[in-house]
Amino acid sequence: MADLYLDILILLDSALRLATPLVLAALAGLYAERSGIVDIGLEGKMLGAAFAAAAAAAVTGSAWMGLLTGVGASIALALLHGWVSIHQRGNQIVSGAAINIIVAGLAPTLANHWFHLNGQTPLLSGDARFQALIWPGVDAIGNLPVIGPLYAEVISGHNVVTYIAILSVPIAAWVLYRTRFGLRLRAAGENPEAVDTAGISVYGLRYRAMIINGVLCGLAGTALSTGLGAAFVRDMSAGRGFLALAAMIFGRWKPVPTLFACLLFGFVDALQGRLQGVELPLIGEIPFQFTIMLPYIFTVIILAGFVGRIAAPRASGIPYSKEG
Amino acid sequence: MPLGGPDITDSSADKDAPAIELENITKSFGPVRANDGITMRVERGSVHAIIGENGAGKSTLMNILYGIYHPDSGEIRINGTACALQSPADAHHAGIGMVHQHFTLVEPFTVLDNILLGFENGAVLARPRRLAARKLEAIERDYGLSVPLDAVVSELPVGMRQRVEILKALYRNAEILILDEPTGVLTPLEVEQLFQIIERLKGQGKTILFISHKLGEVMRIADRISVMRGGKLVADREPDATNASELAELMIGQKLAAAVDRKSLSVGQTLMALEGISIPPAEHRSGLHDISLEVRSGEIIGIAGVTGNGQTELLEIIGGLRVPASGTLSLGAEVCAAPDIVPGAVDLRKKGVGFVAEDRLRMGAIGAMTATENVILGYHGRPPFSRHGCLQPRAMRNACARIMADNDVRPQAPNLPLDNFSGGNQQKLVFGRETDHGPRLFILGEPTRGVDIGAVQRIHNTLISMRNAGGAVLVVSSDLDELLAICDRILVMFEGRIVGEMLAGDTDIAAIGLMMAGQNPDDPGEEARNDG
Amino acid sequence: MTAERRAVALPAWATSGLLPVLNLAAAFAVSGLVVWAIGESPLEALKLLLYGAFGYGEAIGYTFYYATNFIFTGLAVSVAFKCGLFNIGGEGQAMMGGLGLAVVAIGLDGWPPALVLPAAVLGAAIFGAAWAAIPAWLQARRGSHIVITTIMFNFIAASLVSWLLVGVLKAPGSQSPESADFPEAAWLPKIHDLLAGLGIQIEGSPLNLSFLVALACAGLVWFFIERTKWGYEIRVVGGNPGAARFAGIPITRTLVLSMLIAGGLAGLMGLNELMGLQHRLIANFTMGYGFVGIAVAFMGRSHPIGIVLAAILFGALYQGGAELAFEMPTISRDLIIAVQGLVILFAGALEHLFRPQVQALFRRLGALGEAHG
User: Regarding the domain with residue range B18-252, which homologous superfamily does it belong to in the CATH classification?
Assistant: First the structure.
């Protein structure tokens, strides 16, 4: 029994770790869509940030410099998508897909050019990675029954980005529902004419949303290469940007439900990892090519079975121009 | 800083100056002069109506006054002070508020948040929300506007949403209110309430600009009426010194076409019958409850009702788009729709039913496709337009040329995408498509919404001619004047039921209006509903 | 009011010729910057790229060989787009199409080509179509966002095929994830062999019969979309679903039909890659061609002729890029992928980038013309 409890806790712990980039990216998508911009380029921004962060951390030896660089790269890409969507009134899905492809090609090219490691960055260690933060009193509380292992395994021992991710959720909820900026942002995504006739710039709001989107994607990418992993590897985002979008839809464009959707996806991912190479009764060992499909299949089932037809922000994906 | 923006009453320079003076306002879009030397004076504390057909330049003028467009030349004076209105924000500062025809409300927001948007007075909303609620309650008391501040807009009826817009303008300290076609979407009862509100606003010294094309209303509410045509101001009248037909002629610049006489006919055989049709209610939709009606040759039947009381569902059943949960729809002797018989819109068209939806451009046309491709929609699967699955371009071209000629569609360019036609011409094309096949039974929703007075007469004449020739017409409309003018029989719908039926000659707007609001004391449906 | 304000309407050759060329030039300019940044000469790179794509017979053959893939995937995106659907699943549909033809080709070992070839084509189309129809149905009936479901289906298809390739379909004795060789009856003849049969000698290249199949598909798609009632219904549903409903067009059926055709077309991509060249099923043979189809469809304005031209452009980019990567070792295939992304961005999402300038130019030219005339 105690073994099973510990097993579950370890699973939850890795679910939380794996959910970190999802939560950040899903919130990034949420800010963008709430302002009226569809963003399927989360994937590319995460990948770009993962590369920039790993490269900077490798050169400077500081994970924090990595974070800064990753966020910077991601903001640049977010503003590019913003410019295409807002001023150029381009097709937002094509723009997002293009950014994904550009980064997928550019990141390994630059990695090769700088580090000559076949498209990867050098392995990070020590301060170049975000280390687990051990919470105070783990030794004391950790020995308590039930709560102890929960505290030691699940709550304590994550890196700083994970805690930032968890904190960003209530912050997002507060910003969206309790502040002037959030009110205007949501209005821009629902009825930009109303915003415009109230004398507020729709463009300005959407650009600001894209900057926040860039920051969050940057954190997500940084978590990938300097927290979860220890280097930039080709295509390391592995569809997480799209999973994040699905989680955002599952969470109905609301921060807290989106967090739970991400945790669920993280849990499936953790389970998938645990199932690899494990002999199951009746089925036997499931090959990893099969288990690796689980999160994707799970996403399709979630979208088809539990989400149904729900309303996205009404103006999302539609370029705004005063002339109509 | 006072709540909700600047207090303009202190800054007004001259207490006796007119609220608005326009001096020689001109505005061109490319080669088109939308406003041509408009000079106008609006007295403070009056209701000033501006009437004109679509494209007469009313909207352009109001958009100039609201700071959205900038005039090429001319001067605007508000309370005697010359103003350069560069943006809606400038208009707000000058004390001008506007209630657009299409409301600019954020539907998922509460009334309070909609009013706060853009005038929050603080980065964090808790305190502004409290203060605004207090101020709004005072305004509601002063003007007798009862709007629940915490209600979500998407759940409010149209009339209430309009009051939210008015409240919004008053919260922003508007002294001048522009109401753009405010009655177009309202029920008769809501129109009455709006007029009471306008009277109260006027009583408190506010100035109202009332844009409309409904002459009866204008004659009732306005202190002064300006008529626009082709970008020019063509007349200025006091209601006492004019009448509706003079105004109509001023608007269209010529005499109205004569109405076709109704032949007195005895109604003939039943062309279509609905028996006990029901659809369960859904979210924000009333469904249908035991609807039975007959449409007979030689009559025009009108369905009156507030939007959302089942008319859309009724049209969907009659149009073959929905299977009823119970009951039958028959054409002649044949049952075409029942719970176990799936109807088909295409089938019904084959049997001689013409169908024009309420929102005909959204529901009956494809903007990106050419006129030719639009005139076969719904008839595209059968000869002469399609043989063995292949479209027949020549037959399509011929039909399009014929429809364009018969309905005076301009320009007569069959290969032009529909988007490049004006709204009026798009409507003519859709109307022409459905009449081109000589339907025995013609169904249409809101026949003249968004159509000019001249075209209204033509559409009414077409309908009456169909009836005179022994066809049948079923019209769903919220415009009671229109129903009374063309129908033989009128049925009233409320909450998915038919709550009244009367001959058009035996009733009036007031009686129908009451029924539309569900206030008929001897309505048997009322008790049934309470029981169930 | 808006129509009058936009003033100058550009002639068709400017919107579908001049603007795409300008966008392409901009994409190349940005790519040139990247090339310059990693220390190579952009002009030299461009020269190598052009020579690699069109410089000699074999190169041209390769260019058209790659273009074949893009014609299929571009058509797949455009047919779905005509119905208002964003099909980002070309990659997975092509993958499943490849699986379908591999199963048929290997399963019909010993049969004559006259039977195997059509059967394999059918297998490819059916597998691709089925893979596309599921997201379409989910979108129409369950409201699941087709962009996300098709992307998920790409991942699932890739995992599924690589799982089969290390298991059931694995070639005996082989270490890499690939199937056994197809029987020769399932090999598509090369164009240079066909022409040699007619007495015309051209340089050898992997260009094969599927190029002609792709051109035929482009023609058929045009006829189907523009000239049949089903194509008409697809366009109506894409243009205005509300109007489609009132006209009695069955929406779900039309959506699924368009995705079936789209998936079938994407599935045919395997003809070129697998039956034309590899002669066996290999993991990841789709190489991102499905995504490039998005750009091809947008650049080609969803018109079959435009799609063929755009496909040749991307074919040249692929072939020239491969040669370039070979000649300039610092320029890798990764960079060529980035260049493709840039072309997609400029051609697909930034179509209005130069419109104001071109409009201003035309206005000035127009004014000049009036002044003189």
Answer: P-loop containing nucleotide triphosphate hydrolases (3.40.50.300)
Evaluate whether residue C360 is within a structural domain. no
Kindly give the confidence (pLDDT) of every residue in chain B, 532 residues in length, as a single tens digit, with 9 standing for 90 and above. Answer: 334 434 444 444 556 788 999 999 999 887 778 899 999 999 999 999 999 887 788 888 998 999 888 999 999 999 988 988 888 888 988 999 999 888 889 999 999 999 999 889 889 999 999 999 999 999 998 888 888 999 999 888 888 899 999 999 999 989 999 998 888 777 777 888 899 999 999 999 999 999 987 888 899 999 999 999 888 999 999 999 988 888 888 888 877 667 777 777 777 888 899 999 999 887 667 789 999 999 999 999 999 987 778 888 888 888 888 888 999 988 887 888 777 777 677 778 888 888 888 777 788 899 999 999 999 998 898 888 999 999 999 999 999 999 999 888 878 889 999 988 877 788 888 888 988 888 889 998 887 776 777 778 888 888 898 898 888 999 998 778 888 888 999 999 988 899 989 888 888 888 888 888 777 645 444 444 444 3
- Residues from chain B that touch A254, judged by Cβ atoms under 8 A, are none
If residue B229 lies in a helix (H) or strand (E), which one and from where to where? strand B224-229
Compare CB distances from A199 to B89, B98, B124 and report the shortest one's residue.
Answer: B89
Kindly give, in sequence order, each residue whose CB lies less than 8 Å from that of residue C170, ignoring residues fewer than 6 positions away. Answer: C177, C178, C179
Q: Cβ separation of B113 and A183 shorter than 8 Å?
A: yes
Is the residue at C88 inside a domain?
yes
Cβ of A190 within 8 Å of Cβ of B106? The answer is yes
pTM: 0.86
C199–B contact, CB cutoff 8 A:
no
A160 touches chain C (CB under 8 A): no
Number of domains in chain C: 1
Instruction: Look at residue C309 and tell me if it is in a domain.
Output: yes
| A88/C contact by beta carbon, under 8 A | yes
**Location of each CATH 3.40.50.300 domain in chain B:** 18-252, 269-352+442-532
Closest-CA distance, B381 to chain C, in angstroms, reads: 6
Q: Do C341 and A104 touch (CB under 8 A)?
A: yes
Domain membership of residue C366 (yes or no) is no
CB contact under 8 A, A199 and B87: yes
| 239-258 of C, contacting B, C-beta below 8 A | 239-240, 242-243, 245-248
Residue C346, domain CATH: 1.10.3470
What CA–CA distances, in Å, run from B221 to B65, B410, C347?
A: 22, 36, 56
Report residue C56: phi and psi, to 5°. -155, 165
CB A189 within 8 A of CB A316: yes
Across the interface, of A180, A193, A322, the residue whose CB is closest to B122 is A180
Domain that holds residue C228: 40-354
**CB within 8 Å of C125: residues ≥ 6 apart:** C97, C100, C264, C265, C267, C268
Q: Between chains, do C349 and A92 touch, taking CB under 8 Å as contact? A: yes
ipTM score? 0.88
> Which residues 69-88 of B are in CB contact (within 8 Å) with A?
87-88
* Amino acid at position A172, single letter: A
How far apart CA B289 and CA B281 sit, in angstroms, is 9
Q: Count of CB contacts below 8 A, A vs C?
A: 158
**Does C287 touch chain A if contact means CB atoms closer than 8 Å?**
no
Query: Cα–Cα distance between C232 and C249 in angstroms, integer?
Result: 10
B3 vs A48: CA distance, rounded Å: 46
Architecture of domain B269-352+442-532 in this structure: 3-Layer(aba) Sandwich (3.40)
Question: Which residue in chain A has the smallest CA separation from C5?
Answer: A323
Q: Does the domain at residues A2-124+137-307 carry the CATH identifier 2.60.120?
A: no
Q: Measure in Å the smallest separation between the Cα of A185 and chain C Cα atoms.
A: 23
Task: Note every long-range contact of A279-287, with CB atoms under 8 Å and residues 24 or more positions apart, other chains counting.
Answer: A287/C163, A287/C166, A287/C167
